[in-house]
Amino acid sequence: MSDATAEPMDMLNVPFKGLLSISIMLATIMQVLDTTIANVALPSMRGSLGASQDQITWVLTSYIVASAIITPVTGWLSDRFGLRQVFIVSAAGFVVASMACGMASSLNEMVVFRVLQGLFGACLVPLSQTVLLDINPRERHGQAMAIWGMGVMLGPIIGPTLGGWLTENWGWRYVFYVNLPVGILAIVGMMLFLPKTPPKVRRFDFFGFAMLAIAIGALQLVLDRGQAEDWFQSTEIWIETGLFVSGLWVFGIHIRNARDPFISLHVLKDKNLLTALALSALVGAMVLGGSALLPAMLQDVLGYTASRSGLIMAPRGLGTMIAMMIYGRLSNRIDSRIAILLGLSLTAWSMHMMTGFSVSMGEQPIIVTGIIQGFGLGLVFVPLSALAYATLEARYRAEAAGVFNLVRNIGSSVGISLLSTVLAWNIATNRTEMTAKIVESGPRLADVAEKTGFGHHILVFLVNSEINLQAAMIAYLDDFKLMMLVTIALMPLVLIMRKPGAIKVSPADAGH
Questions:
Q1: How confident is the model at residue 333 (pLDDT cuts 50, 70, 90)?
Q2: Is the pLDDT of residue 509 over 50?
Q3: CA triple 279-24-408, angle to 5 deg
Q4: What do you get for the CA distance between the two ends of the chain, in Å?
Q5: Contact 251, 69 (CB under 8 A)
Q6: DSSP string for 62-96
Q7: CA distance 473 to 468
Q8: Which of 117-121, 343-347, 372-376, 417-421 has the lowest mean pLDDT?
Q9: Which of 7, 375, 24, 395 is nearest to 190 (CA)?
Q10: What is the pLDDT of residues 157-204, one digit of tens each?
Q11: In angstroms, rounded to a whole number, what is the distance separating the alpha carbons of residues 275 and 495?
Q12: Which of 142, 181, 254, 260 qualifies as a FRET site for 308, CA 20 to 30 Å off?
């Protein structure tokens, strides 16, 4: 472990930091982009690959599950084989797997290649975060995380729009082929500018990895298939839930007693990191999960087209990027905890405004709340990403980054499933209550038909359509209120974290 103190010294003094940063961020954007870019191409893929509606979702699920399972192993891989080697091999493997996805001729081939894509891509985001932290001194970590945050947020913002344009003009296969030029630039840049880091002899904890892999895989399957299988009315969901609980339980016991677990207890005992994990998961669950519902509301309730919905939501991403740039410049002058609290306050305020949405509103309320919420998110995730590692020794960063990104992604998956389930349940409940009130206290349709001249079947259709519309809108407002309350409840967690000024710099980090 003697090399652990030398690595940060070398990384802090690397030349061409700007070009290196661009190279690793290209790899990050390429990987994050692929989590959303394929969504809009699924209908075209379904016809080309001869898959059913249920089967085609495995194109998304296989990638998510494979990526989730490998993400926490990032620290061990970078220690055992060297950060540079793992980064370059991961990027190259991701590009090759992307090309294979584009050439797939059947659903089975596509699922296999998507699994490979997820396995190779899992390390790219945590390693990019690790490198940006390693090549910058502590006083510049806020700026470094602003750059990283913009890259991570850029993928979800432009993914659906770019995927739709490529599918419409070039075909769905180019959704994967687009990774080739980006990946080549990233690989060449890393080969030129990313220094070699000495590998460390470290035993791989196969049992611990297997237990965590079972838990993560089972959880992702529960989240992805739960709503379609009617949750715990399904034997499959019960089995997967049992695997998740038992796998996580055994993993927790194992890492407390294992001599060399692949996730170090030193990482899991760091108070700043643990608090950041909780905040990241819960904010991701409520806010990022909620963002997945907004396009459906715009199209299904307000009647916007897919392209129009994308344009209306674009200012939200713009607000996030502006906040990240501002914080990057001011990170050394303000307490990161104050920035996070301000960001959570703005996010909660925007959600409160969203509870006032109506079916007759125009575009302005959506754009205004989107900008405010996006700005708030930018003030949460960047300082949170910096504070997460502020009290952690540099040698544990890659390992911690893998855990941090895993928890953030799982939080988003849980949020999407939870909010979608609550939404569906509220729509059904609202519809039942509204129908009952109309039947009990409203005028008879036969009388209305006689007075208006409309046919009975036309009136039934109109009333039913209006009930569905209002029931859905009320359900969305209930989701926004739930998101607001959870966001407010998160604020006290921020006060647990240590501010940067209280952090003692270890000799391994003091090279600058």
A1: confident
A2: no
A3: 15
A4: 21
A5: no
A6: HHHHHHHHHGGGHHHHHHHH-HHHHHHHHHHHHHH
A7: 9
A8: 417-421
A9: 24
A10: 667 667 767 777 888 888 889 899 999 999 999 999 888 877 777 777
A11: 10
A12: 181
For residues 145 and 132, the answer to whether their CB atoms sit within 8 Å is yes
Q: Summarize pLDDT for 196-255 with one digit per residue, the tens.
A: 877 777 777 788 888 888 888 888 778 777 777 778 888 888 998 999 999 889 988 887
Structure tokens at 363: 């575009």
pLDDT tens digits, one per residue of 13-33: 777 888 888 898 899 888 888
Helix (H, G, I), strand (E, B) or coil at 221: helix
- For residue 286, give the amino acid letter: M
Q: Where are the beta strands (DSSP E) in 55-110?
A: none
pLDDT at 67: 82
Better-scored residue on pLDDT, 82 or 462: 82
Q: Which of 272, 248, 256, 406 is nearest to 337 (CA)?
A: 272
Quote the tokens at residue 498.
Answer: 């240590």
Task: Sort 372 into a burial class: Cβ within 10 Å, 0-12 / 13-18 / 19+.
Answer: buried
How many other CB atoms sit within 10 Å of the CB of residue 65?
22
Tokens (6 digits) for 223: 């989240």
Residue 472 has a CB neighbour count (10 Å cut-off) of 21
202 close to 4: Cβ distance less than 8 angstroms: no
For tokens 């206290």, the residue is 441
Q: Which residue has the tokens 């945050």?
A: 149
Largest Cα–Cα distance in the chain? 90
Record the tokens describing residue 192, joined without a space. 């030129």
Q: Which long-range contacts (CB under 8 A, 24 or more apart) does 294-302 make?
A: 295/160, 297/472, 297/473, 297/476, 298/366, 300/472, 301/359, 301/469, 301/472, 301/473, 301/476, 302/359, 302/361
d(CA 468, CA 431): 6
Both tokens assigned to 333? 């002058």
Structure tokens at 322: 């502006």
With bands split at pLDDT 50, 70 and 90, how would you rate the model's confidence at 3?
very low
DSSP state at residue 172: T
